[in-house]
Amino acid sequence: MAARGEFSSRIGFILAAAGSAVGLGNIWGFPTQVASNGGAAFVLVYLVLAFALAYPVLMAELIIGRAHRANMVDSLGQITRNPLGRLTGLWGCVTVSLILAFYAIVGGWMIAFFAESATRPVVSQSVNEWLTSYSLSSNMVFCALFLVLTSYIVLGGVKAGIERWSVRLMPTLFILMGLLIVYVSFQPGASEGWAAYLVPDFSVVMNPDLLIDAMGQAFFSMSLGVGTMLVYGSYMGKHEDLPSIGAAVALVDIGVAIIAGMLIIPAMYVALNNGVEIFSSTGELIAGDQLIFTVLPALFNTIGPIGLLVSAVFFALMVIAALTSSISMLEVPVAYLSESRNISRPKAVAIVTLVIFAASTLIIFNFSTLFGFVIALTTKYSQPLLGFALCIFAGWVWNRNEALAELKVSSPDMEQRLFWRIWPWYVKFVCPLVILLMFYRSVV
C-alpha cells in the first residue's frame, strides 16, 4: 500500500477542512435563517452553539482521525475492536456517497447557470434555455461535469490535489464574495437588507424552535458525522495543536456563513426594490434552491448589462463553494478503498465516481420521487445518527488515556488546559443528548 498523504502546512489543512464545511447550505440557508429569526440575535445564538455543540464533535473526529492515521472504517474499527465500528464506518461511507449523489446534481446546476451567464451574448437563445432547463440531458451533462471536476482534484491525493486546490479555491471564494458584497451594498434597497440581517431582535432568542434550528445549523454546517473531518484529521501532521486548529476551522466556517449573509440578504432586498418577489406565500423570506435559481437570477436580469457579469461571478462563487465540499465527500470512500482494500488511488477514484454518478442518474430519472427522499434520508436521519454514534465512540468506547496521549503528542501540557477539563465529559454526555434532541424534533 502506498504511503499515506499528509497536509504540508497548517493553512493548507485549515482551508481544506473549512472548505469541506463551507458548502451551499452556508450560502443559501444560513442567511435567510438569520433574517427570519431575529437578525443579529440569531447570529449570536449560532456563534455560541457552534462552539458549544459543533466544535466538540469536530474535535472528536479530528482526534480519532489523527490518532489512527486511517480512513473512517479502519479508525472506528480500531476503537471498538469489533465489527460494530467498521460497520458504522461503512454506514458513513454510504451516507456521504448518497449526499454527494444529490449534491452533484445541484453542483451541476451551478455550473449550468454559470455557463448561461458567461455565454449568453454569444450563443443562441435555444442553447441558453437548455442550459437552465433542468432537462434530463442538461442534468446528466452538468452532474457528470461536476463529478469529473471533483474527481480530478481528489485524484491528485492530499498534497497535490486537495490541499493544492483548497488554497486556491478558498481565497478565490472570499475575494468573489467581497466584490459582490461591495457591489450589492451600493444598490437601492440594500440598506433595508442590512437592517434585516444585522439589527437584533432579542425577543425571539429564547424561542425553542429558534434554538433548535441554530443547533442544527451549527452542527450540520460543519459537515460532521459522515467522516470528512475524521479523514482530513488523519492527514494532519502530529506536530499540530489540535484544539487550536479545530477552533480555526470552526471560525472560518462560521465566518463564511456570516459573510454570505452580508451578500444574500442585501441582495434579496435589492431584488425587492427592483420588483422581484422575495417572500413566500406564508410571509417568510424565500430560501434554498428557489432563492438561488429564481430570486437572484431575476435580480441580475433587472440591473442591466452588468447583471450578466454579476451573475457569472455569483455562480462561479457557488461552483467553488460546492467543489470545496464535494472533494472532502469523495475522499471518504476513496480513502477506504485505497487503504482497506489496497486499490490504487486512480482506480478507487474512478470506481467511487462511477458509482455515485449511477446513483445521481437514478435520482435524475426519478427526480420527483427520489431527490427529496435522498436528502431527507441522509441529512435528516442518517447524518445526526452518525454524529451521535461518533460521540458514543469518542466518549464511551475509546480509551480516554489514548485520546489524551494523542493530544499530548503536540501539546504536552494538555492535562492542565481548559480544553481537556471540559471536552471529555462534554462529548460523552452533553453532545449525544443534544443530538438526540435535534433528531427527535426533526423526526417527530
Automatic annotation (TrEMBL):
Keyword Transport belongs to the record: yes
Localization (cell): Membrane
Major location (coarse): membrane
Keyword list, A-Z: Membrane, Transmembrane, Transmembrane helix, Transport
Highest taxon above the source species: Bacteria
Keyword flag Transport: yes
Pfam families listed in its UniProt record: SNF
Chain ranges passing through the membrane: 12-31, 43-64, 84-114, 134-155, 167-186, 214-235, 247-272, 306-327, 348-375, 381-398, 418-440
GO (cellular component) term, any one: membrane
Membrane topology, from the record: Multi-pass membrane protein
Record-given protein name: Transporter
Annotated organism of origin: Alteromonas lipolytica
